[in-house]
Amino acid sequence: MIKDFSQEYKQKLRTPEDAVSVVKSGDWIDYTSCLGKPELLDRALAGRKDELWDVKIRGNLMAGPLAVVECDESQEHFIYHSWHCSSYERRLCDKGLCYYIPMVFHNNAAYYEFFLDVNVVMVSVTPMDQHGYFHFSVNTGVAAPIARMADIVIVEVNEHLPKIRGGYDECIHISDVDYIVEGKHEPPLDIAATPPTEIDRRIAAHLIPYIVDGATLQLGIGSMPNALGELLADSDLKDLGMHTELCSDAYLQLYKAGKLTNRKKQIDRGKGVFGCAVGSRALYEWLDDNPGVAAYPLEYVNRPSVIAQIDNMVSINSCVAVDLYGQVAAETSGARQISGTGGQLDFLIGASASRGGKAFICMSSVYVDKYGETHSRIRPQFDGDIITSPRSQVYFLATEYGVINLEGRSTWERAEGLISIAHPAFRDYLIKEAEKRKIWRRSNKR
Q1: C-alpha angle 295-275-342 in degrees, rounded to nearest 5
Q2: Cβ atoms within 10 A of the Cβ of 75, count?
Q3: How is the chain split into domains, by residue range?
Q4: Exposed, middle or buried: residue 180 (CB in 10 Å: 0-12, 13-18, 19+)?
Q5: Element (H, E) at 152
Q6: Is there a shared CATH topology between the 6-181 domain and the 198-436 domain?
Q7: Which single residue of 26, 97, 334, 343 has CA 20 to 30 Å from 320?
Q8: pLDDT over 80 at 443, yes or no
Q9: Tell me: the pLDDT tens digits for 358-383?
């Protein structure tokens, strides 16, 4: 006989205003990630602004607006922090209203277990099932370790969240919940895939020859992964797999084309593994109660030793710029925070240790600034940019001009390779800069 949890549910049910009354000045609050944002609780907490001081809030990949931020530009009452910036959080950083927390994703659970305080966690979940469980949905990658360490757990039931099957820690039982909040929510934003540019397609075309039947893919989000998804969907490749921190519409595209089967994976065979998901409503519908996918905490998804167990693991990420030494800046432009460290370093290490595995970092060769001036993404040497991936861990790099492998290469070999995939208009300049730094051999062919 299934136990009836309805009475316990009623006892823990609160209005948003009653639930946030537990927050005290000086507390650390966690909103977890992406669709885990507690819309009702956020607005209720903002309503207490005048009676609270120095309440510190963490989140990441949050779509706007956040009421606690928008109501208090003084930051005397609420101070917001992000592990990985969405476009909305990036704009907050530009205004000085968000503080970035550096992190490699596979350490997410350990940070909370050993180092961080969580006085209250507020997280959106699916409606409770007959067994008394609320699912963390597309927020599974980060939610459970935070809830486990929180002094007070408040769940906000969101009727639109997809129920995602998982490997472990994909849900929380009512016995571990202190308060439950209900209310009407808008459906999740329908975030359409970014259309690939011609440069994206050229970069993606360079990567296709490196991918084999049965390869497992980690794709970042953005137009370049979508371009690769298009090309793979139209290719002769088969039995591809998914093991990724962030699931996007590129995987749905591969599934619809019959390419994504997960049959050849050495672990989690038959299941596409991910931590979080951001994309279209069609993506969320595909993930909903799908036995072919499994959500896991990032401590599993992004653990390099786990990634390395998957043969032919192919990791594809992007960056803002690289210098002639092979250092990669993927999260800032100068000192401006754009995104976050995320899982780039995790997958660089893990995919490169996989049998047949490859780790790519991709970028267009140039960009145009707001004044219309064109700049090379391959620079002589960084000066002030935040380094996401050190030169000792960077392997394959790709632009629309080709792919190079820096693994085991000396400084002059790196400079030569990078200049070969730079935009032709900047190659002579980069050669001269390499010569100044004594990393250009005189016998090099120009």
Answers
A1: 170
A2: 15
A3: 6-181, 198-436
A4: buried
A5: strand 152-157
A6: yes
A7: 97
A8: no
A9: 999 999 999 999 899 999 999 999 98
pLDDT, position 341: 85
One-character DSSP codes across 100-140: E----GGGHHHHHHHT---SEEEEEEPPP-TTSEEE-GGGH
Mean pLDDT of 235-262: 95
End-to-end alpha-carbon separation of the chain, Å?
Answer: 78
Q: Which of 89, 245, 299, 400 is an active site residue?
A: 245
Give the E-state strand segments of 200-240 in sequence order. Answer: 216-219
- How buried is 220 (Cβ within 10 angstroms: 0-12 exposed, 13-18 middle, 19+ buried)? buried
Give 198-436's CATH code, choosing from 2.60.120.280, 3.40.1080.20, 3.30.1050.10, 3.40.50.720. Answer: 3.40.1080.20
Q: Among this protein's residues, is 245 annotated catalytic? A: yes
Say if CB 88 and CB 64 are below 8 A apart.
yes
- Residue-wise pLDDT tens digits, 35-61: 999 999 999 999 999 999 999 999 999
Report how far residue 275's alpha carbon sits from residue 432's, in angstroms, rounded to the nearest whole number: 44
Rounded Cα distance, 10 and 175, in Å: 13
Is pLDDT of 446 > 60?
A: no
C-alpha distance from residue 351 to each of 238, 268, 305 (Å) = 20, 16, 9
The alpha carbons of the chain give a radius of gyration, in whole angstroms, of 23
Q: Which of 83, 137, 85, 90 is nearest to 108 (CA)?
A: 83
* CA nearest neighbour of 216 among 196, 194, 239, 232: 239
Q: Give me the CATH topology for the region 6-181.
A: Glutaconate Coenzyme A-transferase (3.40.1080)
Which of 276, 275, 274, 273 has its CA nearest to residue 265? 273
The tens digit of pLDDT for each residue in 395-422 reads: 999 999 999 999 999 999 999 999 999 9
H or E stretch at 241: strand 241-247
Q: Is 232 exposed, middle or buried (0-12, 13-18, 19+ CB in 10 A)?
A: buried
**For the whole model, what pTM was predicted?**
0.95
